[in-house]
Every structure is written in structure tokens, then in C-alpha cells.
Design goal:
By secondary structure, the chain is mainly alpha-helical. The chain is built from 6 helices and no strands. The protein folds into 2 domains: about 70 residues, no CATH class; about 70 residues, Muramoyl-pentapeptide Carboxypeptidase, domain 1. Helix 1 crosses helix 3 and helix 4 packs across helix 6. The longest helix has 21 residues. The mean pLDDT is about 95.
């Protein structure tokens, strides 16, 4: 049975997918986007991988390189979870009208508190720092002895994180 062009393209795409994933963990491996075409970017990423992991630097994917790529990829897949540092800096302040991933996280933490305490309101997780979120933040700030601004600075953030960690530890 012959190796078709479609199969070749699928294998190259798979190789590029693994290399891209590895590059997210190891910045010495250049990012290559999966296209299914073994182009110069793919060769450079393979060569960098070979250099980084002690293989002969050819830029070609021989069986030793393929096996090592799979091994490294699987090791990253099965590693302990990394912490996600969502709060940008100690001087950053979340205000009314802000939007984005950080707001989703704040709202999820507030709802985690709401699920654990009957006297704490539930608010929508919508990614918009709106009046309901501000009201919940102010109540939280009051309950933990912080100034009731409705904004989330690093002090409020840290209290939210520790409160949620405490809740998570008591549930398990």
C-alpha cells in the first residue's frame, strides 16, 4: 500500500501540531503553525528541537526525532498544571466598564463565594465589569474589611483568591 499525498500532508500537520504545542512550553522552539506543508519554518522548528533535545541537527524528521517529539509532547501533556497569573500587576485596577478574561475570572470567583455563602449574591458571568459585579465586589470588600470601592485592585484580588482557595480546600 503506497503512502498518499493526503496521508503525507496529515502526518506533517500532526508533526507541526506537536511542535507548536511544544513551543508553547519551550521558547527555544520556534512556533510553526500547522499547515500540512513541510516548509522552511517547519525545518527550522525541527532543527531547533533537535538542538534542544540532543539529536543531530538535520531539520528532517527521522524516526529518532519523531519519537522524541512524541515523548516531549506527552510529557508536557501529563505535567502538573501551571498557575495562571491573571492579574496584570500590583498597580492595576479593574474599573466599571472593563471587559475581558480577567473579568470572567473575577465573576467566577464571586460566584464561587455565592455558592458557598447564602448571604452573598449571585452575579452573571458575562465578562463585563457591570453594576451587579461592582455590587458583589463592594459586599465582598465590606466582608473582608477592605475599602468598599467596587474596583478590584491587587488587595481585593488577593482576598478573592484566598477566599476561593479556602472554599475549595474545605469542599475537598
Amino acid at each position: 500500500m503506497s503512502y498518499t499525498d493526503i496521508q503525507k500532508k496529515e502526518h506533517i500537520y500532526e508533526l507541526q501540531t506537536y511542535l507548536y504545542a511544544i513551543s508553547l512550553f519551550n521558547n527555544k522552539i520556534p512556533q510553526v503553525l500547522p499547515t500540512g506543508v513541510y516548509n522552511n519554518d517547519t525545518s527550522l522548528a525541527v532543527r531547533a528541537f533537535q538542538r534542544e533535545y540532543g539529536l543531530p541537527e538535520t531539520g528532517d524528521t527521522d524516526p529518532a526525532t519523531w519519537n522524541r517529539i512524541i515523548k516531549v509532547y506527552k510529557a508536557y501533556q501529563h505535567s502538573s498544571p501551571d498557575a495562571y497569573h491573571a492579574f496584570p500587576s500590583a498597580s492595576y485596577i479593574v474599573h466599571d466598564g472593563d471587559k475581558g478574561p480577567l473579568i470572567y475570572i473575577i465573576q467566577a470567583m464571586l460566584n464561587n463565594i455565592s455558592n458557598s455563602y447564602d448571604n452573598f449574591p449571585f452575579s452573571d458571568i458575562c465578562g463585563n465589569y457591570n453594576q451587579d459585579t461592582i455590587k458583589a465586589v463592594k459586599l465582598f470588600q465590606k466582608q473582608v474589611g477592605l475599602e468598599e470601592t467596587g474596583d478590584v485592585n491587587s488587595n481585593t484580588w488577593n482576598m478573592l483568591v484566598h477566599c476561593c482557595e479556602h472554599i475549595d480546600h474545605t469542599l475537598h
